[in-house]
Amino acid sequence: MFCLCVFLQLAALERQIFDFLGFQWAPILGNFLQIIVVILGLFGTIQFRPRYIVVYTVWTALWVTWNVFIICFYLEVGGLSKETDLMTFNISMHRSWWREHGPGCIRRVVRPSAPGILEDYSYVSVTGCIIDFQYLEVIHSAIQILLSLIGFVYACYVISIFMEEEDSFDFIGGLDTYSYRQPPQEHVELKPVKPVGRSK
Fold first, then answer.
1. Where are the transmembrane segments (predicted)?
2. Residues sharing a CB contact under 8 Å with residue 149, sequence separation 6 or more, in sequence order
3. Which of 12, 33, 71, 165 is deepest in the core (most CB within 10 A)?
4. What is the DSSP letter of 176?
């Protein structure tokens, strides 16, 4: 579980860095929650806390759903468009960092020459990319889904082991014999106490 959590954390941190560079606020929030819940799941495994692992499994199902949505978003499935500001919560016009900085991409800043356009406004031309940015985002999401599915299966396995151990645990005195606490008695018999130490 430890190695899997390390891979999940590295993948989430790598994605978090590039989403920060592209000001992608929705994925940043999702990545942050992923990092926290993976730590919680690891803690639950080490400390034998099944509830924490259940939280991890529920989050993993949501995380897989989120990554499927990202794949659909960048591949423009079902009326979604990668040109919208959905990933930035409509706060800014930023897009994926990979759009301008992908492998092999040549980025050119072109200043507009038309009158009436602000001087600090510029167009960015990107050419020569080996792989388009949307496919890089899809690859990132696919890796997240693969790691999350492995984590989900492993978490279910760990939960089942914890439940078996909990069911087979023999409490003090055993469950089948009698309780270690005696039931309260209605009548208590009082006996006189003989003093010790005095003899005649």
1. 25-46, 53-77, 142-162
2. 60, 64
3. 12
4. T
Helix 133-168, helix 25-46: angle, nearest 10 = 20
Which of 22-26's residues contact partners 24+ apart within 8 Å by CB, and which partners?
Answer: 22/94, 22/95, 22/96, 22/97, 22/98, 22/99, 23/88, 23/92, 23/94, 24/87, 24/88, 24/94, 24/96, 24/97, 25/87, 25/88, 25/89, 25/91, 26/86, 26/87, 26/88, 26/89
Q: Which residue has the tokens 């959905």?
A: 86
Dist. CA 45–CA 51, nearest whole Å: 10
Question: Which residues on adjacent β-strands are paired with residue 108?
Answer: 125
Give long-range contacts, CB 8 A cutoff, 24+ apart: 187-193: none
pTM over 0.85: no
Query: Which residues neighbour 118 within 8 Å (Cβ) at sequence distance 6 or greater?
Result: none
Q: Could you read off the pLDDT of 108-118 as tens digits, one per residue?
A: 877 666 665 55
CA-CA distance, 88 to 42, in Å (whole number)?
A: 30
Distance between CA atoms of residues 98 and 131, nearest Å? 10
Residue type at position 95: R
